[in-house]
Amino acid sequence: MADVVIDVVALGKIVPSGDGTLTILHEISFAVTAGEAVAIVGASGSGKSTLLGLMAGLDLPTAGSVHLGGQDLAHLDEDGRAELRGRLLGFVFQSFQLLPALTALENTMLPLELAGRADARATAQGMLARVGLGQRLGHYPKHLSGGEQQRVALARAFAMGPQLLLADEPTGNLDAATGAQVIDLMFAMNAEAGTTLILVTHDEALAHRCGRTLRLSAGRLDA
User: What is the arrangement of strands in the sheet containing 37-41, beginning at the earlier edge strand?
Assistant: First the structure.
């Protein structure tokens, strides 16, 4: 059996709301094994992004647990969770999350430099060439199109060789044609690297490109 990359067990999230509380997630359980591509789909407000944040250790659950790379995220302090994220995870967001004061090359190099990689520049240059931006290394995000910015984000996400890629509505800010190109590139790079993929989307056609689909409805996983 393939190794389990992430294991979500009876996960719950409750937040304060007005005079009471709001339950965002109810007892969510699933596991994702190495090499899988899994889509998480659901309407706006169903808890998809909250679930993704908990899986990444960006937030902690009210109940249940997330084991990433065999470690219970709740048993790590903030620095420990950040170290695990840097080592195991790559992220692609709807809003690109590029630093405006850094060039495409510098944005891609950043996680490599933070990890102390001596080959940060060469690796970043190679990844940007892979996404078709080898001639745009010195461009700042404001001088890149939305599709180009998301390609930089892909290069940055894959540069560290993550075990698991988390993608949150990666085409949400792109037109249909550009989004399709970015998705084709993401799936191709994912296959080349043998990365495990968890993709949050409301796009059923995109979800069908994954091997498995998990459906969230009002904070619960549909059976």
Answer: 89-93, 164-168, 196-201, 37-41, 212-217, 220-221
Which tokens sit at 25? 């997630």
The tens digit of pLDDT for each residue in 138-168 reads 999 999 999 999 999 999 999 999 999 999 9
Cβ proximity of 49 and 200 under 8 Å: yes
Pairing label, strands 4-17, 164-168:
unpaired
pTM given for the model: 0.89
Residue with tokens 């792109």: 174
> Distance between CA 122 and CA 166 in Å, rounded?
24
Which backbone phi and psi does 192 adopt, to 5 degrees?
-60, -40
- CA 198 to chain CA centroid, Å, is 7
Cα 199 to Cα 14, 17, 91, 98, 152, distances in angstroms: 23, 28, 10, 19, 18
Work out the average pLDDT over 49-65.
92
Residues 6+ positions from 198 with CB-CB distance below 8 Å: 6, 32, 38, 40, 52, 55, 164, 165, 166, 167
What DSSP state is assigned to residue 103? Answer: -
Give pLDDT, residue 43.
Answer: 85
Which phi and psi (to 5°) does residue 209 adopt?
A: -80, -10
Report helix, strand or coil for 89: strand
